[in-house]
Amino acid sequence: MFMSSIPPVYLKAGKPRPSARLTDRVNTFGRAMLRGYGERVHKVALNASFTCPNRDGSKGRGGCTFCNNVSFNPNGRQPAPINEQIAAGRRVIRKRTGAEKYLAYFQAYTNTYAAIDQLAGLYGQALAEPDVVGLSIGTRPDCVPDDVLDLLANYQAGGADIWLELGLQSSSDKTLQRVNRGHDFSDYRSAVRRAHARGLRVCTHLIIGLPGEEGEDCKTSLRHVLELGVEGLKLHPLHVVKGTMLANQWRRGEYQPLSLERYVATAADLIELTPPTVIYHRVTATAAAGILLAPTWCAQKWAVINRISAELQQRNTCQGSGAGDRIPRKFMSESNV
Questions:
Q1: What is the pLDDT of residues 28-51, one digit of tens each?
Q2: What is the CATH number of the domain that holds 177?
Q3: How far apart, in Å, are the Cα atoms of 83 and each of 114, 122, 127, 152, 154?
Q4: Is 336 part of any domain?
Q5: Number of domains in the chain
């Protein structure tokens, strides 16, 4: 298991070196893994055919207003076995980046929402692959019982690189109710405290552009997350995708998606407020072209990343500039995210 760190080269806060490369201004997941392993390590996204308590009736029906899980995992409704999915992902990633080590990323739906024996079997299949060095488990804050945390902690104690990814999205209970999340911030607080008690690292997902929220609301969510402690963050723009309640609200003019400019400005604000030791696993996200309705710029991942990099360069700031921390001159020298 690797231990992340940031290079011990610092500047006075607010004066980072002039560069538009995201990795010179943000502590990215790719660069953190490169520092820890001495080589590229990538996540392989998996679909283990889980469902969600907010869809099957135990919490609610229909899921979140924005949720069509194809937008997060386009492999669809009949996924291949875990080993075949890893093999397919491995082929693509090796061709694109040359990486030879991977984290198995259980991504689609709620990947702790099953009996512990079933979870152990699925996680174990992934860890049995010789080039899989760990797991990244995506789930809801209200679906991490103690036996699941104990299982993940045991894997970590055995040397596996473990991340628990919690889809908080917002710290506002009013917002969470508005989008029918089916959990509240207290569920997140409990999950984080119990995960940290076992030494597990948490990566928290936040959505920018939720109905009824502005940039200041996103900053408030980030502050609440940082107060509890977090090791990783993911930022997502809110997609309007087919087959969702949000799509109906958008068609009726009840929801207006963020402009690219507003997203970039808000993402830069949040990055500045984040201590440099926190690892950014993602600063934007895309949806499958076949289901994305709005905003259309969400289909252009690298254009958004480049705009965020340019925004930070224009401001002459970087991660931690607004957090009162000493600021690393650069997080890594390579140019790719």
A1: 999 999 999 999 999 999 999 998
A2: 3.20.20.70
A3: 19, 10, 10, 20, 22
A4: no
A5: 1
